[in-house]
Amino acid sequence: MRGVTVPLVTPFNEDYSIDVPALEEHVEYLQKAGVHGIFINATTGEFTSLSTEERKFLAEKGRELVTSTFYLVGTASSNTFEVIELTKHAQDIGADYAVIAPPYYCSLSEEALFKHYSMVAEKTDIPIILYNIPSCANPLSVPLIKRLALEYSNIAGVKETIDSVNHIRDVILEVKGERKDFKVFTGLDQHFLNTLILGGDGGIMACANFAPEIHLAVWKAFQEKRFEEAFEGARRLAKLSKVYDLASSFGSAIKLAMSLRGFSIKPVLRPPYTMDGEAVREKIKELLNEVLG
């Protein structure tokens, strides 16, 4: 797996039930756009506000819908045994990868984090993408990522949602440098091009829910060594990523942007998250007009 992967929003109706028709429509749109991967039960998908049964339902529904790209399923939890259960489920339904953020809420030592991932890796065969998101969960250090990658062949890569070029550089040089098939993805739109330049494999980026054409253009231009075009696209992504600073959550930012761009996904978040109001919507509208026209 390389290129542009989309961490999918979870569409909800006004009563907070899952909006299945909107999900079907969005997955079809992304596949027609030509993205390389679709990731369900992601942070952007509000997985912490879903029940285990809903997460399994979405994973199964996504497996039905995703036919032309890599299919990734988020299986993170603060309960190791639930992670094992969800990862086995992802494996059983035929997902290509499970994406696992560290346990959240509880502060854990590196040894505890190693044991957590080891237990999952030893009880499943599906390729696992580690998900480093230190703003929301225990951080994964470069030595820990390296130890896991070298000890478990089914730990296949890492998604780095971390605003640090140096960290991404060190993962690429120290982990990918020793294990060539280990995949390194950025989780931040503004770090897409520099991750590719450093030798990474792509990005798993939320703004690709509503503007995948920019991410795909950067990817294609970089692969074809049309660097001026890649630079211009990267500058547009850098501006577009300001959308996260305007809203109170990833979900609110992305769903407001999608609403403004005409997607049928409703601007509804599951509690405890709340949608931002008209003032934020107007700021996001101005940003989209500036970047996307």
From TrEMBL:
The keyword Metal-binding is assigned to this record: no
Keywords: Lyase, Schiff base
InterPro entries documented for this protein: Aldolase_TIM, DapA-like, Schiff_base-form_aldolases_AS
Leader sequence segment: none
Gene3D superfamilies the UniProt entry points to: Aldolase class I
Main location: cytoplasm
Domain of life: Archaea
GO biological process, one term: small molecule metabolic process
Quaternary assembly: Homotetramer.
Entry binding sites for pyruvate: T44, I204
The species this protein was found in: Thermococcus gorgonarius
Location of the protein in the cell: Cytoplasm
GO molecular function (one): 4-hydroxy-tetrahydrodipicolinate synthase activity
Cellular component, GO annotation: cytoplasm
Protein name as it appears in the record: Dihydrodipicolinate synthase family protein
Enzyme active site: Y131, K159
